[in-house]
Amino acid sequence: MSMSSSALSRHGLERRRSQLNDLHRFLAQQEQTFVTLREQVQAFVDRYTSNLGEHYLELDALESQLHCATHYLAEALRRNGIEVPLPRAPQATALPVLPQLPTGTALPAPPEAGQVELAPPSLKTLYRRAAMRMHPDFAASTVERQRREQAMMTVNEAYAANNRTQLEALLLAAGESPLRVMGGNADAMQTWLTRSEQMVQGRLRVVQAHLIALQAHPMHQLWQAIAQAELKGLDPLCVMANRLRSQIQERRRELYIGQRLLPESSLAQAFLRRRVERMGVAPMAGAASSQQARRSAPAEQTL
To answer: How confident is the model at residue 240 (pLDDT cuts 50, 70, 90)?
Structure first.
């Protein structure tokens, strides 16, 4: 390997290390973006829960009682020979769960003598360096020329015999840098850089996927919608709370009727049919139940 190719190899490794550092800084920025956004959305979730949580709990309790009442009516009708479907059991309103970024893995330790980045020079390169140092034409005196002629003979013999060890010893004795003679850990450095790049890029894909999931989360979208409405002077959470109160009153009335219906009456069948239709409107979706989606939709439409 020539001196110029060694310099290029070293420059290439330095460039890759610089690129790895830039990539690592970008990863840290993306991680901080996720953490900041999640904290903002979580603050909204806490506010949302504080304003509406009690209403959802009360509504869940009423739905549970209604299910017991309608289940009793359905069983009574079946005992009387009237085949009716059982209403589906209500699902409790689930608390919103935001994506959580998994813990990252630390990069592997760089190879020892991390600043040494030159590959071992070739035998021809060693010979040229030895010739530059010991050639008789560079002698300053007759005595120096004779010494250089003797040394150059030894260099030529070592090169002809492919004796790398002797050439290295001659250069080191002449004051050549051990790094330029023996080379460094370029192969180990390249392996470390490749592995580190793969780890950082893999982690970056994970972080960006979680950031996209967080931005697409229903609570993030609801937070943005409510924030925009509040900038216009509106109070969406208050509107949603009022709608939940209205639903609570409706469920109370429905429960009052359901607990007092006689199983043999036609009203009982109509009551049960409406209950089955309402509970079977929407399937379960994700972490939130159809019941939660049904309750939230009227309030969110006011935004």
So the answer is: very high
